[in-house]
Amino acid sequence: MGTRWSRSSSSQSLLPEEQRVTRYTERRDSDNDSLDGLVRREDIAQFPYVEFTGRDSVTCPTCQGTGRIPSEQVNELVALIPYNDQRLQPQRTKLYVVLSVVLCLLASSLVAFFLFPRPVVVVDGGIRSVTVTFDRNNTKVLMNMTSTLNFSNPNFFSVHVQSISSQVLYMKSVIGTELLHNVTTVLPLSACQVNYTVSVEIGSNAPYVYTLCTMSSIKVHNILVLMHTALQSHTASDRCSDSVLYRRDVTEEIDCSDQDAGHNVT
């Protein structure tokens, strides 16, 4: 009975020893795995980054396949991302590009619409009135002819009428001239009217006109004169260059009868 007890006690004492051996073996294997992992990482770190290029790929020109760039070139080099990279969100990029182009075209169209110069409309209102006087000592006919010009500005900017030049001819002879400066400024999308007067003198170059105009035995004392009118203007934004706004030659019939007051032309 004593021997049996001794063996049973011996077998129970062997179990903890086997467990200790097993745990030591497992710990040693784990340490070996950790050492193998460290050694493997150290071995990998000794090799530079290599880009395995295939038939359809090329080596990165920035790092030349090393995977590193010099620190002094960090602020000089630009990272290139493929266009089809999902981080770029190509669909939104295309949308933004299209919207930018559309907005640019719309802005250009609006600028062209508002700033593109349109011709100013000038309508000759004809001779408004004529005042006739006579110089009986020198047999001259003196007249003041008042004419009217109507302006209409379809632009979105002001137009300044720089000058009006008017010349009156009778039978190819100049009988009167007038030159006005800084006439008026036509505001955007507005209209205005300008009256100007030309002084006319008919004397020795056509002495029969005096006889015609002072003859009381006839009822009609009308003569034909040729009026040459020219206008120069510039826009409010371009005051350095002048442009011819209006130029016209028109024949007018005026009454040169002997009257003390002015009268309207028929």
Automatic annotation (TrEMBL):
Keywords: Membrane, Transmembrane, Transmembrane helix. It comes from Astatotilapia calliptera. The gene is TMEM106C. Residues 1-16 have a biased composition (Low complexity). Residues 11-94 form the Transmembrane protein 106 N-terminal domain. This is Transmembrane protein 106C. InterPro entries: TMEM106, TMEM106_C, TMEM106_N. It comes from the Eukaryota. Residues 17-31 have a biased composition (Basic and acidic residues).
